[in-house]
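Lay summary

Proteins are chains of building blocks that fold into shapes. Our project writes down both the chain and a compact code for its shape. Here are two examples, one after the other.
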Amino acid sequence: MPANSTLSKPDFPAAVPHAILTLVRPYKGVTLRQDLEVLSVRPDAILAQACGGHILGAPAGTRVHLYSPNTAHKYVARLAEYDDRTGVLLLTEISRLEWDWKERLSDRVQPGAPLYGTLHYGRWTLRVCLEDISVKGAGVLVHRSSETGNSLRTGVSVWVEFDLPDGFGRLSLRAAVAYLRPVGATLSRVGLRFSSGPIQTRLLERYTSHRRQEILDELARSSLRPSAHKEAFELYF
């Protein structure tokens, strides 16, 4: 199937009435999952019921992933409508993912506010902005000019330091550059794979667990507005 092709019933055998699908979406680095019961299926849409009455704080228009144990393929869809009173939702623009989707070994959390630190490489010291972090690694942003000028490349060993917020203390550990990817015209995202000792590992575990709970609490406090266009359900079903 070509990328962005429309879902058809035979292509997604799990999408049948009463089947259970799992909806996945990232939120500030945390991977959120929601089980859905399929209510009805059309070639271009699925009407489903959120099990437990939640939908992970996803507003209409959010792109989400879908999978089922009954099919090896994974899909991307758009949450077109959601009725927060009934938990009924409408998924459209469903297409098969054309790349391998691998689960992360651990959740990465985004800081609550911009967090800057330093990355030491050889005799160079680079100012970096932390995008997300887990016990195993982190993603940081650097200016492209700094990266190219200092020959930062995949596989090199670096030293990274951050003063973590909320009184968690100073993170200081060795890491390896896992990848470099351009972000816009001037920045690069650098993926770091940590080589942390027991003390720094415990610090990472405490901070990421604390931040993850903050993110989940934020979702719990946020209330979804009732859908203003309930007629969309009738348009498809």
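And here is the second example, written the same way.
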Amino acid sequence: MTLAVVVGAHGVGGAVKLKLFTDDIGSYRTFNGGALTITSMRGNIVNFHQVTTRDAAEALRGTMLTVPRDALSALADDEYYHADLIGLPVRTPDGTPAGRVVAVENFGAGDVIEVERLDGRLVMLPLIPAAVPDWDAERMVVDPAYLNA
């Protein structure tokens, strides 16, 4: 699972600036199968044991920081990982195929899913019970009224 991405170098000593996809990245020390190990972290600024120069830090720009799925924290019943939603087939309540989830965004007011409809059109809808009354690991059920917005 991807927890962050390196967005660039920070300073001259090899530190990097991260775009974080989780608020608990500090509980993980090793990423990308052991290729990167955190030695210090201040907010979203990180030093890796393997990176000691600005040039080496710049070379990491765009690198996704990943951990194995089994290393992730257990979730409460009402929690989910965005990655688990992406790719889910979307169906209407009567079971009619309607598309697939292609992205999950959060602009501050809650999660928004982006659905690619069968006709190729993209539609964004809030991840609320009125729009998405049900989902599981196999499919997402969406109220058709939200797909025609």
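What can we say about the second shape? The chain has a mean pLDDT of 92.
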